[in-house]
Input
Amino acid sequence: MLIAHITDTHITLPGALAYGKVDTAALLRRCVDELLALDPAPELIVHTGDLVDRGAADEYAHLRAIVAPLKAPLLAIPGNHDERAAMRAAFAAEGYLPHQGHLQFTLEYGGLRIVGLDTLVPGQGGGELCGDRLAWLEGALSAAPRLPTLVLMHHPPFATGIAHMDRIGLRGVEGFAAIMRRHEEVEAVLCGHVHRTIHARVGGRAAMIGPSPAHQVVLDLRPTGPSAFRLEPPGYMLHHWHDGELVSYAAVTGDWPGPYPFFDAAGKLL
Output
């Protein structure tokens, strides 16, 4: 199974620019076009939060219109820019989000369990895994302890070294890591929030942040680095689950030169 992973799309109201600079709608349309052109096509698309910029119902309507051409199912969990009630209403027809409480779910696709985890704290940039959410996660994983699993969450459960993002990071990391140590069936934890491709291990499990199809957070590892973004090449991730192995790829979107051959018609290296 091939899974496309997008995150931090920050869709605004039609015609508005995120932070007065970024046309997130146009960038997401480009990402959708490239996902539709993939061969083989993704069988599932996951979104790890910050779907929209301010949590407004009209922003979710704008997002739904942009992603409507996608043929694969789309599963999404909230980020700190999302609003639970508006997001719940926007995705009600798909039926995978609960009718109340945290926006969490467990589904199975192609021999993989997908666990969506809600780290949102309304009104805050940082996230939290409270006792209730950790208990829910433990129960969801324990229900089928040998089933290969991907966990989706917005806030990464590790410090990235990008100080201003770590200051609005995740509370409850210790409890999460303890659960990961008990559940070897977790193949990977897929995250967002930091708008960069970053890999780590948490409780012995692979954890990775995907890039944004829009703007990227500046890679600045100074403790006093300012909060800033850069219009670097946008992107997404692909995760290939095959024969019990997960292989992950970072992809960039955009009109780049190529592809060019390595060899000429006679098979000689150019």
About this structure: The chain is about 20% helix and 25% strand.
